[in-house]
Design the sequence.
């Protein structure tokens, strides 16, 4: 790869203008996870990108979980992860460990990394400022301390943004008696995006985006409308864990968020490419006419 | 104990007026720990007291550590606690577990309990908003990830207070490269009190206060001046772990905080008694003339 | 009466939390009068209670008249009080004396007493800031300078509250030509409560509350709904001067104020008991379903 | 007197520009009293002038007493006015009547008249918001409830001005126990002018100004410097009640108020002439070089 | 003309009170032009009047063109003015000269004169802050760079007013590509009045107002309702250039501006007479009932 | 030149982070002139760069003159430019034309171009808001309407910046009588930088920077300290028109502005390269130790 000349660099910066203008003063929610959270180089790059977006006047909210790290911790204390229908069965000990790993380790590590790059982050979870109202998941099966959200108060998030900090939020919340539950991070990101009336939500994943042929990255679907999703599910293009993820995006868009982007977190600076250039990366979901 | 009559209740409320007037709009830092953090009844009462103080217009900042809970966690993962000169040697794994227990488990549990009693708390640690600047403890002995504070930015704490939330802060912080260290919770409370220009600092302990005769609670020293401390140390009335605790109080008072109170957290509603009544409880430290 | 222990005192303070939370930041209008305005011990206690409520974040508005003091003044200048259908006939001289006694003597005395207890009060009447729009009472009978309110501007009251002062307001107002009239203090309190969108209105009286049997205080009606009032009037449980007082409460509740409380001002700290405890005192009026 | 033409009227308005610019946003304290307070035409004109000054962006504070009205009231209740060394001996009954006449009758009447001309006034006394700190006058002779000021808090006055109201303030205040005293209105106006850092103080009197020859109005001294006052006293040009009045002006000017004006309240619109024209009226006092 | 006495002057100032109260805090748009812009004495007087209105709390917006000065400039560079249907054909060179004369010379000269009289003005044109959205005039005939407005953003005007400056605005604007056009100053004044929700618009002209008989100034029509305009046009009382001017006034009034005044700029202080007195000057247009 | 890949583009954007952080919320004054003002491609690029800097949170102030355009205009009206000691002799006609060309044509054209690229600019000159206080240049030689600055009020500039607009300011100002003068644009930029307490001042020129050997661009001096300037003048490295330009930079740095940059406006995006990269471009001037 040839090194860019000074002139090229300046030109590239100047080309970002319309994108910066578009998002200036707007709120963007980024669900951070997957490879980009494990690979150190990618992690550093993402935290730098968050700093950049925040510094140029975009209100960035970072939401994260940490399934693999929790599994590692459970293993460490000699406890096996147990899944029912793809959902982790969460007994009290598991809930406690999740709370520790998510809100204590990962959350504060991310905050420290953003700060070390000159940003100003504040680490929160759904309990802080009573941001999330959660109750035990309603189901025939008992999943233990797995919660579902019933309300999101944008107050604490906006207070942190207004004070000039980047909120980094993880996926635990409490019910009205103060009992703490785990919640799904994707779903939480979507709820938060709706509550703060975000311009966009970006979900970082480990896939290239939606593919017509799942084995061929050249068949990437670059944009899709909400009303086309049912057909994509029927055809099997959207399947498995992508179904609830997309359904959640659809709800978010229907609540007024303009766009959901499913991007490939394995690509360096994927967020910058998505937000500050006209390059196609991942799959964009827009509101379709009914 | 005879039940108080309605008339007595009203009289008692009305007697709190001068104390409420005194602290109205002022900041008070409370170091929470010891028995009051382990006993569930006491914990619930303390969280209720915090709610009450906050609700009547006092800017309360709660600082906490969690040594016993960390020891329990270390035991759980089969790791022995190792102390050098009374300081816990903190290897990377211990640091990670401390971060998890303090910032993930205890901190968010306290926040959840305050919120469940109708308060509005936000859980932070020294990393958030880059509140603490920390470096590895300078010493001939290597204590691992034990840090010492070099600066405290009151910005994040005041932002949270100004937005109407009670900051609940735990004792981890990061250096300028984002490396996280444990810090001493008592010391952190004192630094925070100085940074936010608190009116008072209250340290909850498991002792009745300073005692002339350590075996006789009737010899409680109810107040002491900073310039009398050296003599108390010399006499052995202040000894062991109380020496650095008191030294820290002296520094805080010298920086402009009007009073430090060492109170007995084993007494129900000890904070309310100390702040909203004329009853003697524990030992007060005031600035002495040089 | 046994003296309360320190532990009891702290417990009692802590029990006030839910009530303080309920009223925090809300506006409460208190109509002050009767015995509590004449008895010095009661007066001092009421002014202290007002200070306490204000200090813990409740926006208190005190409204008062002063019939007995006016009668005394009239007697002093050798003028007889003249009543028609229970309303004082108010010639120009009587109007002037009322203005002097209410706005000059009683109002400023109350302000001075609140201030002497550490509060910050400001004494106003309906003329100040053109708060009340008044016109001569429409009636077949000429009552002289007896006015009726046609509008209340909450502006001056809110300005005083927002600047951190307790408004103490008395019952005179001016018409559009600057002619001053007396108005009824109960009615004024109700109008003010509606204008400032108060949470509650409290009317201090010299009775225990509404009684099923007017001669038996054990028959106190602790709560009543607005739609039950007509029946109470029919039954004679509400009679005489209580009829317009209650009608005024009903109007206030219909305008959106949640509760009207008729309390016995002869009981020490009656306001604190009513607002900060779960003890029954007096009669509460709530909105009834139509 | 020939009626002014439209062209003349417009010209006169336009000539006021530099004077309006000079006082715009500045605070001016006007001590109102004498004939201008008794004669109805003059009173109406003064209240209109106050409205005008306030409306064009000048922060006007009106201070008033009411000696003649108090004497009339005392007479009415059959009580003789008693003076010692020119000071009214003020027993408790007299103090109460003063409070009633000043704060209840005159103050609210003035407020009503300003409001009736479209202004927005609020009537206060030194008790309100604890504006004045007063103590019993120190003297070998007991004057009763005659107070002297020890401090003035500009807070309540500025709060009222900032909220867009004209403060109309009368001359009673309380000591720290809430005991009310009369204070001298001229002195109070001077203290208030200092506290609010007024641009000017205007004292309305019933004389043409300082006269070289007290029997010849043509010998009016139009301006005088503070350092010339002692000589004027020595010469007898300033004598009697004018001595304390002028001394008070000198103190006010020494505290930073630029000018004191002694004007003749018997002249219609004297305030407007003094403030918005280049016409000489009364005597101006400026700071003299030491 | 007899010189006004001091008493008359004061009386005249005091008579302005109700007019000042009426306009206080309101926005007034003044279209400045004609003789008042050419005659130096008139110009100085108008700028002084603007200062006065601004200083007494009226939000004044001055809008101006400069046809005669542009014609002079064109002549200077040897270019003939060319008119089609009364509209100046504006080629690129003419447009550039208009921009220079209007925005460079006249606008800044007016600002300098207001400032020299103690006012605080800021000179703008429709390009500044993208205040006007303009497009090339739609017509069968090509008028060159003659634009018509499609939108007015009150933001820049209010920003300047809120910062305490008098906006002086001239009649050029740009389309979305940054191409600059001339617009009609009368029309622009009307659009601006609508955008800033002005209380009044005043159009300074060189005529006495609408006349029943155009040759007899004694037949001045002092007020007219919008619904009477068609009849006036039909009768020929409104004719020629007055037709679009009046139509524009009608639109402005229909958009919520209370009054349009066509006044004779040849009269000294015509603006003050119109705004601050009850003297008839020119023709007022009010909203007529449909 | 090879086209940059998407990955390179993202990398380049991410590398700008520390520079954006450095200038975020700071004020930068850019003196615009020379080739970059004549060449259309360069002009468009500069206006885009200004938009970018403004959009990412830098408070940009653009200052410009327009000598060549004025000369062209003078020629057009058949008037010869006359220079004395390198300074244009400015008679009244020349002054008028300068005002028209600078404040009417160039200023508004620049504003229109910034706006057309999505920025929000407001065009001002030194007369607006009385920003500059100017007097006739003191000299033995009469230069006509050539002024020198005696004071700069940052108020109008900050008001425009605070309202979210980019101030574009040209080099004419008025004396206290409203007489308009031309001032030197470089000097004005320096004065403005001092008044607004800018972080940096950037002077766009048509040279590569200071050169050791004026004929060899490879001898560019990339940085110089203020205390080295005298030697550079002595050596002839700084000569001619560069002497006053540099002297002005030195004064600005001495007043607290951290850096002056002399950059080559002929290079595309020279401002972005200077501010957002670590590439050397032009000559930086820093404060030298005395």
Sequence:
């Amino acid at each position: 790869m040839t090194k860019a000349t000074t002139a090229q660099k300046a030109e590239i910066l100047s080309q970002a203008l319309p994108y910066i203008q578009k998002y200036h003063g707007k709120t963007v929610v980024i669900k951070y996870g997957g490879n980009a959270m494990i690979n150190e180089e990618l992690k550093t790059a993402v935290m730098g990108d968050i700093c950049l977006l925040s510094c140029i006047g975009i209100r960035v909210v970072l939401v994260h979980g940490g399934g693999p790290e929790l599994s590692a911790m459970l293993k460490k204390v000699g406890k096996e992860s147990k899944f029912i229908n793809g959902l982790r069965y969460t007994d009290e000990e598991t809930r406690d460990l999740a709370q520790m790993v998510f809100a204590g380790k990962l959350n504060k590590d991310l905050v420290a990394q953003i700060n070390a790059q000159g940003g100003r982050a504040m680490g929160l979870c759904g309990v802080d400022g009573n941001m999330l109202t959660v109750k035990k998941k309603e189901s025939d099966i008992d999943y233990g301390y797995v919660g579902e959200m019933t309300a999101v108060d944008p107050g604490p998030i906006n207070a942190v943004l207004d004070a000039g900090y980047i909120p980094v939020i993880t996926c635990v919340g409490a019910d009205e008696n103060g009992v703490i539950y785990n919640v799904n991070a994707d779903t939480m990101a979507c709820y938060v995006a709706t509550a703060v009336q975000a311009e966009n939500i970006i979900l970082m994943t480990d896939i290239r985006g939606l593919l017509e042929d799942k084995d061929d990255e050249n068949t990437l679907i670059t944009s899709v409308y909400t009303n086309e999703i049912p057909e994509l599910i029927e055809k099997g293009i959207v399947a498995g864990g992508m179904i609830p993820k997309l359904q959640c995006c659809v709800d978010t868009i229907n609540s007024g968020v303009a766009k959901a982007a499913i991007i490939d977190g394995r690509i360096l600076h994927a967020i910058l490419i998505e937000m500050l250039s006209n390059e196609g990366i991942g799959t964009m979901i827009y509101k379709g006419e009914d």
In short: Residues 229 and 246 of chain A are 8 Å apart (CA to CA). The first strand of chain A starts at residue 27 and ends at 32. Chain A has a mean pLDDT of 93.
